[in-house]
Amino acid sequence: MKFMKKMDGVFHASEGTARFSVLKEQSIKTVFFFTALFAVIVVSFILLFLLRDGYPIFAQVGLLNFLLGPDWAPSAVEPLYGIFPLIIGTLLVTIGAMLFAVPLSIGCAIYISELASPRTKKILKPAVELLAGIPSVVYGFFGLIVLTNFIRVTFDIPTGETWLAASVLLGIMALPTIISVSEDAISSVPHEYKEGSLAIGATQWQTISRVLVPAALSGIAAAIILGIGRAIGETMAVLMVAGNAAIIPDPIWNILSPLRTLTATLGIEMGEVSVGSEHYSALFGVAVVLLIITLIINLSAVAILRHLKEGRAHCPARKPLVSSATRESLARFAGIIGIALVLVFLLAAAPWWLAALVLLTIGAWYFGRDQLSQKQIQTIAFSLVGLATVIVLAILVIILQDIIINGLPALSWEFLTQPPRDLGRAGGIFPAIVGTLYLVMGAIAIALPLGVGAAIYLVEYTREGRITRLIRTGVDLLNGTPSIVFGLFGFAFIVMYLNVGVSLLAGQVTLALMVLPTVIRTTEESLKNIPQSLREGSLALGATQWQTISRVVIPPAVPGIVTGAILSIGRAAGETAPIMFTAVVFSSRFLPDSVFQPVMALPYHLFILATNVPGSSTNKYGTALVLLLLVIGFYSVAIIVRTHFQNKARG
Amino acid sequence: MKANRSSSLVITIGLAVLLIAAMAVAGCTDTANKNTPAVTAAPVSTPAAVVTAQNAVLAATPVAPQATSAPVSTGQKQTIKISGSTTVLPIVQKAADQYMVTHPDADIQISGGGSGVGIQAIGAKTVDIGMSSREVTPAEMAKFPAFVITTVAQDGIAVVVNPVNTAQYLTLDQIKDIYLGKITKWTEITGANVPNTNNQIVVIGRDSASGTRTYFDETLLLKATPTAKMLEKNSNGAVLQTVAQTPGSIGYVSIGFVSKDVKALPVWYNAQKIVAPTLDNVKTKTYPVSRDLYVITNGQPTGLAGDFIKYILSADGQKIVADEGYVTLN
């Protein structure tokens, strides 16, 4: 209130206007508060619904037997509902995926933000975002046909459907998320840090590794958490390559053993199971456990983040070079653990020459690094970073090439403008294209205002406190919630409970809930990067908080918000699991006339063609290609918008 | 858990926000729709038909759509929704395509999801017909006593191996022992060899909620539980793909899915005969592994739903069943 009075002095405003503007400020704040609370509401809803349906199995089998039971055999004469192998499978796959994805992603992010020329950057950034737009069904089929075969032949084992295949595939799928968000974080470290470091004589690599990356650590950590969320929640791809045998690898580090994750169990068993039966309840129990695991992972990640931030706060103001001993030892500890894990895997599975090569390299590095000059270290580091980028690009090229070569023959005017005939073996996919557009647009239309509102509330209106912590936990949980669980929730709540029916609307809402955390996270990150001085300056000039937010804070944050929207669109367009039970029909003669009608959608069409219509190979790849082109189309528009805003912000 | 303390308040707010969002989007999408028909509807139908469809649907959607009471008459738009098993979906979809050619005023919308989803949906009356590839369980029957179940086709289950496998046939006992994990090498089976491998058998089956799996386990494994090392797939297509690219593998799929990428093995039935998994052998029940595919309605099917089911059972409809590689009814 003190502040408002001061403002009155500046504007010579009447008492009435002042009261009105106070009221306005208050109501705006309330609106933002509710958008922020939305994530928490949704999560509690999901938990409630899952618990409601999962409770009977806990009551019947007993919580401990359910969690620690070694056998999952629901169809046995005496059904066994032990999910211990599934929990272990989920954890192992996620750890493997992160071991694969994190080094690649951070290397690639460093390359894009620090080493690439502006021109290369312009190509690399969209290329990475493109990886995010490849639908998970396509990843799954790529994994099943190319990756598992490659692993089978390379390691000379009976089947390539293994933990390794699942981890690599999930790692690839997590790459774009981790790269984009960490690249944003590294790029937004203030220029002064870099210039200061270079000015005191540090090499470029020293600047990157000791100044920029530590300064961006919270962003990078957020990126990794997002990536873990993506990996844990993935259903369609992982169930195609993991083999889904409900066993614990023997020995536990045997990455060439098949295994089964919690999500895959839901994905493959949910559709057919008799609703309300013991097995059905057990699957909801699985979903509850899955949510709790994501809760634990997210909370520990938050704790780590807080630890990092406090470590930084102890240092003298504005000093980026954090030399806190705890940090160093933490980093060393993490490094040793990482190396140990890699070693165990190498010794267990890799061909001897690869293991020897890696061992030799590590040994040479450990004993030889003191002999190397900073310049040589820089050269080595840069080549590694470059190599990471090349690997990421190679992965993109391999997948794209597979889709394009096989899909191009299907593309024709008829294919794009006709409804399908003969179960999609002939005819086109026009209704599916339109359906996907409707779904994605609706989802973004719902998620964007809610997500941006929530982020504004979290960053601009509150200090860290109980409520923000509750909201953030809600967002984290929502982010970690597997897409298949959103699908189940959409079916149980929107379709059945609210009696909306299988409809466009149900799909849009379900997809919106799924992409909401991505929108919130990325918006939050880009709002945080707006220097505090801008806000202070605006407020000092007498602008109200809302004026400050709408005129000063949001405009430069738009590129970040758009990035979030792009990632969301890419994800929503390619998802099968959330719409499978809520929004889609296999084929429809007419386009939907209202949001209460079901639609066709490209990923689902692809899924059915791939799994249930023999002899539709050409149209299957054609559908995949169209889906991909559609996403590229979204991206191009969004990238143009982003560049436009960036130029405007600079000019 | 702070969220639980004020959960009733939270639920109320949640509902309100959800509703507001829903209305906002309903508004948005309707405008979007109005722009498109000029371009989009042309190849599908005339604009007039679209308008009628809209009226009919808008009138019917807020409550569960029930088209069954209205008589089938030309000129009046009718929509039915069908949902359920993805195994039955190809038959029903293709029948619907054909049916709609001769009945231009009928709109049949079909979605998958699985047998469980289909049975639940027909039970809750959100659809007019449910599809199932497994039998309706006693519990489901007790919950929805009005169910009328119609068999529309039969499905044979073929045991398939990779084409490089030299195996000529398998006995029922061998199949059982392989799936129970007692036989782990192809060398243990007479005539079987997989060149350039260590002859390890890769056992592939369906997920435990699958109708195909239930049937396979009951008939061939005599209700025993298959080995935990079995790789589980959630569709015929996925089993087929895996078997086609894994030399030492064995799997089972619907007969309609058998292609040149895999080798469907005849079964040594008893001392006298070896039976190949062909449509004829399934139809005459000579081949031991076959099951029924169902559609389910709430009460006796009437109106468009009834007429459509009659069409599937007619000679034209059964021809589609045969075309899709399933077994027609006798």
Can you tell me about this structure?
The complex is a heterodimer of chains A (651) and B (330). Chain A is an all-alpha fold. Helices cover 77% and strands 1% of the residues of chain A. Chain A has 26 helices and four strands. The two termini of chain A are 36 Å apart. Chain B is 40% helix and 20% strand. Chain B contains 13 helices and twelve strands. In chain B, strands 1, 2, 3, 4, 6, 7, 8, 9 and 12 form a nine-stranded mixed beta sheet that branches. In chain B, strand 10 (267-268) and strand 11 form a beta hairpin. The interface between A and B is large, with 103 and 111 residues.
Helix/strand/pairing category of chain A? mainly alpha
Proportion of beta-strand residues of chain B: 15-25%
User: Would you list the SSEs of chain B in sequence order as H and E?
Assistant: HHHHEHEHEHEEHEHEHEEEEHEHH
Low-confidence stretches of chain B: 1-73
Mean pLDDT of chain A: 82
The number of helical runs of chain A is 26
> How much helicity do the residues of chain A have?
over 70%
Bulk shape of chain A: globular
Report how far apart the termini of chain B are.
60 Å
Percent helix of chain B, as a range, is 40-55%
Outline the low-pLDDT stretches of chain A: 1-11, 315-322
Determine Rg of chain A (CA atoms, Å): 25 Å
**What does the largest sheet of chain A look like?**
2 strands, antiparallel
Largest interface: A-B, 103 and 111 residues
Structure class of chain B: alpha/beta
Number of strands of chain A: 4
Can you give the mean pLDDT of chain B?
Answer: 76
Put simply, the count of helices of chain B is 13
Oligomeric state of the chains present here: heterodimer
